[in-house]
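ok new one. same drill as before - structure tokens go in, u give me an amino acid for every spot. 614 of them this time. try not to just spam alanines like last time pls lmao
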């Protein structure tokens, strides 16, 4: 697209880039702030945000994709977390004081007996946010982090690796130790010189570290400074200062760092969430431009033949719930590009009032081989009074992060976190919206199709309603605390939205929508979000009605897992970008974006004007 961009485009692009870099910079910066606190600049900051964070222990980090957490075996996991936190602490100290043999003896003993954790939440995060450099704890820590913050942790890990900061970490370690010794030395009579030396070194390192977060930022003579600091610490160690004092001080610093680190961890996770949820400027621009254009010169409404086609039960009907023009365009384009025959395909994009006109114009302007595309505004559908009253708005497929113990070995394998997506309230309107149809394939708007899907239409589902990919690493049994006393087969696997073949006729026969609504109503009595209720009610409504399709159909996780095999990606029939890092976001995992982007039009005028393709 670069060639076609006007000078206006370039300027806009630069501005947009600037914004993105700004936000990312903020995110990264706020991860580094714990360092500032280590350096003793904390007093100014502390009162500002920290208190309010304490008052609201439910952190903002739960907003967005990762907002709903289902935690099984709660009591037990709390226990494990505690043990983990302790272990982590232990290792940190073991590592941090490796260089100074005298100090080592002190901290580990006392830290293992450190007082019980006041607030489990705080400390889980704390363990994560600490300046931990021991490689062997990173895995445990990673698990804890994910338990609390979800895919943010993957993102963070990925971006941290780019930072070269071995020296910075070493300096921080030294500073940490020096600060622990300083008060004891300062109290010693006739040691003014050493005390001054320590103080100067501390101040110097503080200054350096307040300006540098990576090794390249460090001033040239830093090795000398480090040497001087090491020498001062070595001298300090010669004095048999009360071990208790040093230990006490270490723990003070440690606690403070822990709290601050936790606060900043939460804050940066929040910024990450913000970046995840905020519609990119280019997409916003596209939506606005299309809407304006729609009203400037209203297109002729749907051709008659198209209207007929969209209700012909003999065709292959695909349904997409979406409020994202580009995402739904990619789903449709990738489907038709790989289908042997597109003339028998009809796509139905269900959207809301706000995006309806943009979508409408987009799909009138663009053709997808010979396929038909119908855009429906879910808010203006003429459904019967009952469903209209209860289900008015568009709800997209819900995505969840579920953390639980693996039942097989509850102690050893502490916490697993799975990412799943599932039907939302809007999906239960399907039989009513498509009264003439008996079968539809529902695709989430974060998928890319890479093969012909026609085989799905000859699937014999044996009386089941929903053909879905099952997710047997998560069984309903593991969610029992969550699903309550309802009766269900404990061994049933969870299932995913993304690709679902729906037998609408059977759905109607079984009154599944009513079942769902009844369950949802019963569950709403508890204090829970609509989305969390939808998860439980969906799992229970479709209990026993899932036909397991071959897992090879769809490869999930491209929105949260950095480690997916490239070969597996190229072989999969469908790629599912479930997770926070959607391919249309700046935060999207770079190496997977290509599979999505290639289905965008290279020439479209609106895309160029909004810098979508850059
Ligand atoms: C935690 O365990 C206690 C005693 O075993 C039990 O009474 C309580 O209901 C449990 N809490 C949860 C949330 O499961
Ligand atoms: C946690 O550690 C304590 C002893 O330190 C142990 O008794 C307990 O079983 C551990 N809990 C878990 C869940 O590992
Ligand atoms: C902590 O470390 C000490 C020695 O380094 C070890 O004896 C102790 O078992 C460790 N505690 C835990 C909880 O890992
Ligand atoms: C729907 O509501 C309108 C008025 O609110 C009423 O006239 C109509 O009969 C209702 N239709 C059904 C199917 O209940
Ligand atoms: C579905 O509902 C209709 C009327 O509301 C009822 O006659 C029928 O028996 C129900 N079917 C099932 C399977 O519950
Ligand atoms: C569909 O994808 C192809 C590339 O595979 C691209 O050339 C074309 O412009 C796309 N069409 C639309 C309408 O986006």
């Amino acid at each position: 697209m670069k060639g076609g961009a006007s000078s206006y485009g370039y300027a806009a692009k630069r501005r947009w880039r600037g914004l993105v870099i700004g936000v990312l910079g903020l995110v990264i910066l706020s991860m580094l702030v714990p360092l500032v606190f280590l350096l003793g600049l904390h007093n100014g900051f502390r009162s500002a945000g920290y208190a309010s964070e304490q008052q609201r222990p439910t952190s903002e980090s739960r907003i967005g994709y990762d907002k709903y957490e289902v935690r099984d075996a709660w009591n037990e996991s709390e226990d494990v977390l505690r043990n983990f936190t302790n272990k982590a602490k232990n290792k940190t100290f073991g590592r941090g004081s490796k260089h100074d043999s005298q100090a080592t003896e002190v901290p580990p003993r006392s830290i293992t007996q450190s007082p019980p954790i006041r607030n489990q939440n705080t400390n889980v995060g704390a363990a994560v946010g600490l300046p931990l450099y021991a490689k062997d704890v990173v895995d445990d820590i990673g698990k804890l982090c994910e338990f609390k913050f979800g895919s943010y942790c993957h993102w963070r890990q990925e971006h941290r690796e780019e930072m070269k900061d071995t020296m910075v970490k070493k300096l921080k370690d030294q500073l940490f130790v020096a600060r622990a010794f300083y008060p004891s030395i300062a109290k010693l009579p006739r040691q003014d010189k050493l005390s001054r030396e320590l103080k100067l070194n501390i101040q110097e390192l503080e200054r350096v570290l307040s300006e540098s977060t990576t090794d390249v930022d460090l001033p040239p003579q830093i090795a000398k400074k480090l040497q001087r600091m090491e020498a001062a610490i070595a001298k300090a160690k010669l004095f048999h200062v009360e071990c208790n004092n040093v230990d006490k001080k270490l723990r003070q610093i440690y606690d403070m760092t822990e709290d601050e680190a936790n606060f900043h961890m939460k804050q940066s996770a929040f910024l990450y969430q913000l970046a995840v949820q905020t519609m990119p400027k280019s997409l916003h621009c596209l939506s606005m431009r299309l809407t304006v254009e729609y009203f400037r010169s209203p297109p002729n409404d749907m051709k008659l033949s198209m209207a007929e086609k969209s209700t012909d039960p003999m065709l292959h009907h695909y349904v997409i719930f979406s409020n994202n023009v580009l995402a739904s365009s990619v789903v449709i384009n990738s489907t038709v590009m790989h289908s042997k025959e597109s003339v028998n395909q009809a796509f139905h994009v269900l959207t809301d009032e706000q995006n309806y006109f943009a979508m409408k114009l987009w799909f009138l302007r663009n053709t997808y081989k010979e396929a038909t595309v119908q855009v429906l505004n879910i808010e203006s559908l003429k459904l019967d009074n009952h469903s209209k009253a209860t289900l008015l708005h568009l709800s997209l497929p819900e995505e969840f992060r579920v953390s639980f113990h693996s039942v097989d070995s509850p102690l050893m394998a502490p916490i697993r976190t799975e990412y799943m997506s599932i039907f939302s309230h809007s999906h239960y309107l399907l039989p009513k919206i498509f009264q003439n149809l008996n079968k539809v394939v529902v695709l989430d708007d974060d998928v890319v199709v890479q093969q012909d899907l026609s085989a799905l239409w000859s699937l014999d589902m044996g009386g089941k309603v929903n053909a879905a990919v099952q997710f047997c690493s998560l069984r309903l049994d593991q969610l029992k605390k969550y699903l309550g006393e309802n009766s269900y087969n404990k061994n049933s696997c969870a299932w995913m939205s993304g690709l679902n073949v729906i037998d609408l006729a059977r759905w109607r026969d079984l009154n599944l929508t009513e079942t769902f609504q009844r369950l949802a109503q019963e569950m709403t009595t508890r204090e829970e979000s609509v989305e969390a209720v939808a998860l439980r009610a969906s799992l229970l409504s479709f209990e026993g009605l899932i036909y397991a399709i071959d897992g090879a159909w769809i490869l999930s996780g491209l929105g949260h897992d950095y480690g997916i095999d490239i070969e597996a990606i190229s072989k999969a029939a469908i790629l599912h970008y479930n997770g926070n890092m959607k391919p249309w976001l700046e935060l999207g995992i770079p190496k997977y974006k290509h599979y999505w982007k290639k289905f965008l039009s290279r020439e479209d005028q609106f895309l160029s004007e909004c810098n979508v393709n850059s």
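The longest strand covers residues 345-351. and btw The CA atoms of residues 36 and 42 lie 7 Å apart.
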